[in-house]
Amino acid sequence: MSSDKGHTIPFVYKFIAATLACVGMFIISMVLGAADTTIKDVWFALTSNVKSDRQLIIRELRLPREIAAIFVGAALATSGAIMQGITRNPLADPGLLGLTAGANAALAITLAFIPSANYFSIMIACFIGAAVGSIFVFGIGAIKKGGFSPFRIVLAGAAVSAFLFAVAEGIGIYYKISKDVSMWTAGGFIGTSWSQLQVIVPFILFGIFIALLLSRQLTILSLSEEVAVGLGQKTTQIKMVLFFVIILLAGASVALVGNMAFIGLMVPHIVRAMVGTDYRLILPMSAMIGAIFMLFADTLGRTINAPYETPVAAIVAMMGLPFFLFIVHKGGKVLS
Known about the structure:
Layout: H1 11-31, H2 39-47, H3 53-87, H4 99-113, H5 119-141, H6 150-174, H7 178-185, H8 194-213, H9 215-223, H10 225-230, H11 235-257, H12 263-275, H13 279-303, H14 312-329
Helix pairs in contact: 1-3, 1-13, 2-3, 3-8, 3-9, 3-11, 3-12, 3-13, 4-5, 4-6, 4-7, 4-11, 5-6, 5-11, 6-7, 8-11, 9-13, 12-13
């Protein structure tokens, strides 16, 4: 099923190169920041038990947030690739199709009505919210006859997202928790802790693992549903499982860093230009490129105006919006 024509470099070499790039970006992100540190400081912080100020900054502040950046980038890129494959919609992205807005609204409701909720409960609420948001979008998109139009789905996503963000904002103002909601939904890794990672990372790993298991079926689905049915695939069940994976990945990401659009839109297009249209190659490469992209965005956010932080969501949006408009201008066919 691979369309590797014109791609003479074997996938394994490309993936190794992406992995090395991810390791390099991780090292750069660990070294750069408001506090002056060196590679030597990072090495000592990771290999010794010394408790100096620099070592504590690296171990307790930078390391968890950069690990979070890796997993959130991988989760959003993978979920975006799956969405584009299932819907055959080049504009599909968890942040554009109501998932992150639904998770944000659920988060605000949970903080307002269950103030004592622990992190696990908040994450479950985000999963439910992501599911409700996406059901709204696809429900509105399916009202009109003629199937799902990519642009109709995007318009429905914009409308539903605006409504759900307004719900979150209204609840925040009415229950005087706007500051708490804003801290969650700003889209950043400030304050990411080891305890949060222990809850979130297993869900993301599980979601990516299930997606990889179904990558062959996703490739066939992305080409034609009729072909998939003809080959004996249980398309409804496969779509439901993959949809569950999208909710899992998007919900976990929002629970950790808040709203983050465009990663799931950009990365799969870039990856398809690198490896072709086989999702057995697209998904693992998307996870790796998404991790690199998020590490880069977080490092930029911490260093561009140090010691102040620039919101990562703003940096990602500045990169993603021109890309989105370019894809719309090309009719969704760019890089695919």
